[in-house]
Amino acid sequence: MTPSNNPGTPLSAARPPEGANAPSGGSEVRAAASVGALSLDAEALYRELLRGVQMLRTPATRLVGVTSGGAWLAERLQADLQLAGAPGVISSAMHRDDFSKRGMVSGSGGQTALDFDVNGAEIFLLDDVLYTGRTIRAVLNELFDYGRPATVKLAVLVERGGRELPVQADFAAARVTLASSQLLALARNANGGFSFRVEG
Predict the structure, then answer these.
(1) SS3 sequence, the chain?
(2) Quick one: what percent of the chain has pLDDT higher than 70?
């Protein structure tokens, strides 16, 4: 069983929806176009993500979060799904195509930590925002350094358009359209609650 697709009006009133083949699940998020304001309820989107992951995972699925926002999501999902052990954490830092310019920037998060055999594993990657697809490309390269998984699925809180590589989420809690100058990032408070930060 897969989540239903809920087509709707895109966030940006200036452009048509991006791509008829959007990933299953989630909802369209509207903004006050007259003032360009964006309101994203990260906690509501997390609950939608939890529903989607519950529907798509199998008993053999291992959760792996992309640092840092995806790692936060994987940690909370691991607890809410009452899964044993800790989720995996994976970093895109070493395989980024802009590594020569960025180096090991602080925003790239922690180190990869996979305490299971990747060979033959069913892996569910989690990330906060899917944008160009370049981070996921780098993460897949990192993952295959550890072995050859049987399957890899991707779930994200927000897919924001602007894809530059053929990467698509199996589940996205919401789809929005943002200007390329805008930054959308997940934040976590001391109590583990999520919120989104929009800049630009």
Answers:
(1) CCCCCCCCCCCCCCCCCCCCCCCCCCEECCCECCCCECCCCHHHHHHHHHHHHHHHCCCCEEEEEECCHHHHHHHHHHHHCCCCCCCEEECCHHHCCCHHHHCCCHHHCCCCECCCCCCCCEEEEEEEEECCCHHHHHHHHHHHHHCCCCEEEEEEEEECCCCCCCCCCCEEEEECCCCCCCEEEEEECCCCCEEEEEEC
(2) 76
